Amino acid sequence: MNQSSLPHILIVDDEKHLAEGIRENLQAENYITTVAHDGVEALEQAMTESFDLILLDVMMPKMDGLKTCEEMRKKGIQTPVLFLTVKNDPEDRIRGLEAGGDDYLAKPFHLKELLLRVAAILKRTDWYNHTKLSLSFGGNEVNFQTYHANAWDGTQHLLTHKEAMILKVLTDQVGMIVPREEILDKVWGYEVFPSTRTIDNFIVRLRKRFEKNVEIPAHFHTVRGVGYRFTEEAEATQHE
After folding, report:
1. On the CB side of 95, how many CA atoms lie within 13 Å of its CA?
2. Which residues contact 23 (CB under 8 A, 6 or more apart)?
3. H or E segment at 187?
4. Model-level pTM?
5. Is residue 239 assigned to a domain?
6. pLDDT digits (tens, 9 = 90+) for 96-133
7. Do residues 122 and 226 both lie within one domain?
């Protein structure tokens, strides 16, 4: 296999023996790996190299994983992030999501589970990269490659990876009802750790970015008790 086509994964952990163990196992699965041992180094690596996935420890010196992820997102780096951490309560998971993370794995973890999660994230990313590249609707323009969007009112937005993925799931099925569970499966995958309410919050954010009237949405329609339906043409609905 052409090495340039292999996924490149950045491993970030201040426990050097653990980082090396993860590196060896990922390389055995034909992944290319780079290692960083703190958040500052990880941010520098992410700004100078292209990665397909970042495994990011939360508890680190200089800059913790949550702050590192936040800084990456601020700089427009949308590489998927899998947090590795000894903290595993629901509030920590929520903070990880809010920081821009894609998944959350508690230490200690089984190697097989880590490899399954890595494969699942890369599969979702591959789906994202091989569907539509851009979208136009209601005076809005979205570039799925750069995550940049120009809204109907002239404002510009930088979408998060999850916002863009949810938008893709909905717009791949224009006019169709998409259940919340399907969105969870395509965007988060095999393990539903966010709740369906998380999707509702993302839809609210998309409406704020793209709807002319968020109280009477013309494009992002709620189907109560089921999910959502996207329409390209303005289609006013009852208050949701």
Report:
1. 13
2. 11, 33, 35
3. helix 180-187
4. 0.73
5. no
6. 766 778 888 888 888 988 998 899 888 888 877 777 78
7. no
